[in-house]
Amino acid sequence: MSNIIHISKINPSYLKLLLNLGDARKEEYEIMQTAWRERNPVQRIKSAHTALEINPECASAYILLAEEEATTITEAEKILKTALKIAEINYRRSQTTQHQGPIAEAMHRRDLNVLIYIKRRLAMCARKLGRLKEAAKIFRDLSKEVPSIMNVLNIHENLIETLLEMQAYADCQAVLAKYDDISLPKSATICYTSALLKARSVADKFSPDIASKRGLNTNECNVVEAIHRAVEFNPHVPKYLLETKPFILPPEHILKRGDSEALAYAFFHLRHWKNVEGALNLLHCTWEGTFRMLPSPLERGHLFYPYPTCTECADRELLPAFHEVSVYPKKELPFFILFTAGLCSFTALLALLTHQYPDSMGKVAHSCLIYMAYPFILLKERIEALWQCNFMHQMTRV
C-alpha cells in the first residue's frame, strides 16, 4: 500500500501560475492548456503525449503524466526528475531574456513557478518513500523563495508535516514561529500543530480531576488557549482526531475552515497526535470549552474572522454524498430562557387576541375555566358525599 501513488491531482488554481499568455502561439502549450481543463483522464494523458511529440521539452506535459499516468510513487518520481531537468534548462534560458519585455518577464516567472512546483512534488515523493531528510531539505530550500506561487502551494505546511514525521519538534517549532503570525493566512495545520507542540510539555502529566481541584498552571493555560484557538479556526477537526466521527479519504481539493480541511488534516496528522502521550486526552478534555468562550451572536468572532456561513454548502460539493458533513456547532440556550420566551410569547398572543376579539375570547376563557374546574368540582362532590355518609354512620352509632 505504501507504494501506491498518493499525490493529489493539480489544483485548478495553480493553472494561471503554470501557464502563460506567451504560449498562445505554441501548439504544445495550447494543447496542455486544454489538457489541464479536460475532465476525461484518458484524454488528458493522450494530450500530454501529443504535446511531448511536438516538443520533448514541454515540462508541464511531464507534470501531467506524473500525476495522471504514473501508478506508483517511484514511477512518478522518475517522470518528475525528467521534468526537473527540462524545467531547469527552460528557467536558465528565460532568465537571460526576462528583461526584453512584459511577455518575456511573464514567461520567466512561469518557468520559475514550474520549477518550484516540480521540486515540491519531488519532495513529496521523497517523503512518501521514507527519505525524510531529503524531503525536508528541499522544502527548506523552497521556503526561502518568494514568488506568488509560494502562498498557493503552502510549502511551509509541507515542511511542518515532514518535520513532525521526523519528530524534529524543535525545528518544527522554529518554522511555526516564522509562519504562525497574526498577519499571515492560517490553516488547520498551523493552528493544531501549534497546539500539539505546546501540549507536549504537559500532556503526559495532565489530569482533569487534579486540574479541576488546584486550577490550571501557566503551561496548562497556554495549551488550553492554543487548543481553543485551533478549535475556533476549524471546529470540525477534534471529532476526527478523537475518532468519534468516521474517516473517509480526503477530497482532492479542500476548503479552509471547512469539514474538507478537517478531514485532510486529521487523516495525515492523527498519528502525530498519537505519538505525543496524553495529547488526545488533553484535547478531549478541553476542546468543547471553546464554544462557551465564543461571543454570541457568532457573527462577531473572537480570535479570527467570523466563521463563513457558506462553508457547509461548499463542503457538500467537495465531499461525497454518503459523507455526513460536519457543521458549525450551535450554542444551546438554557431551558429557563426558552420557557420564559415561550411564556411571554403566549401571554402576548392572548393579550392581542383579547384586544381584537373580546367577546369570543371571553367565551373561550369561560369554557376553559369550566373545563379546568370540572375535576375539582367532581372531587368536591365526592368528598362531600363521603363526609356525609361517615357523619350519618357516626350518628347511628350514637
TrEMBL record:
Going by the UniProt record, its keywords in alphabetical order are: Membrane, Transmembrane, Transmembrane helix
Name its cellular compartments.
Membrane
Q: What membrane topology is annotated for this entry?
A: Multi-pass membrane protein
Membrane-spanning ranges? 333-353
Mind telling me which GO cellular component terms the entry cites?
A: membrane
Write the signal peptide boundaries.
Answer: none
| Family the entry assigns | Belongs to the ST7 family.
Q: Tell me what this protein is called.
A: Protein ST7 homolog
**Species this chain originates from:** Ceratitis capitata
**Organism phylogeny:** Eukaryota, Metazoa, Ecdysozoa, Arthropoda, Hexapoda
